[in-house]
Design goal:
The protein is an alpha/beta fold and 203 residues long. It is built from seven helices and seven strands; from the N terminus they run βααβαβαβαββαβα.
Length: 203
């Protein structure tokens, strides 16, 4: 622990048939896995900053050495069991138990997400309880909170991967009297149509 803030990136091992399956249905699973590999590497490389620590949450802890050989010398933690909400809650709890003051959790599907946006997220937590990065599909590419909210759960019984996730999260926060800051809207890559928006960046 070098900094008081930490960013945790969720990354899967780029195995065909396990990642980007919606994309793979149209361009092939092998190609989709290769694109995911590029996305994940981009997320790690562009997400680094001396102003916060970077941890990587992996979904197959038994493949730790393969993750290390692929991505390099980082602190890897387990995503744990459950749905996405449960895994995110696990990540926040891990960070706060280690003594971090603020934690941001992101995925690897958003090519334009980089350290500058993560820093904007940490700054937003100075005046808001929660920060969310708005994705163009109705979800969010980033979520962050401070340690004083570590017992506060907003992810339970959430229906994920639908276009009302952000709206439902904001509704829950408002109901519980919590404030939320929104970062600029960015696009994820989940389908071939999404991929085409980025031209030949991922080929």
């Amino acid at each position: 622990m070098k900094n008081s803030n930490v960013c945790i990136i969720f990354i899967k091992f780029p195995e065909a048939g396990r990642v980007k399956t919606r994309l793979g249905c149209t361009i092939g699973m092998e190609k989709a896995a290769e694109i995911y590999k590029q996305l994940a590497e981009n997320a790690v490389n562009s997400g680094k900053s001396s102003e916060y620590d970077l941890l990587i949450a992996i979904d197959q802890p038994e493949r730790l050495h393969e993750f290390e050989n692929w991505l390099g010398n980082y602190e890897f933690i387990e995503q744990g069991s459950g749905d996405l909400g449960g895994k995110m809650q696990n990540a926040f709890e891990y960070a706060f138990k280690k003594g971090y003051t603020r934690c941001i959790v992101t995925g690897s599907d958003t090519p334009e997400l980089d350290y500058r946006i993560v820093l904007e997220g940490f700054s937003a937590l100075n005046s808001s309880d929660i920060v969310l990065g708005k994705a163009d599909d109705g979800g969010y590419y980033l979520v962050g909170m401070s340690r004083h909210l570590q017992e506060f759960t907003i992810f339970s019984n959430m229906i994920w991967s639908i276009d009302t996730v952000l709206a439902e999260t904001l509704k829950r926060l408002k109901t519980r009297g919590k404030t939320a800051a929104l970062l600029k809207e960015l696009g994820d890559i989940d389908t071939e149509a999404d991929l085409l928006k980025f031209g030949d960046r991922f080929v």
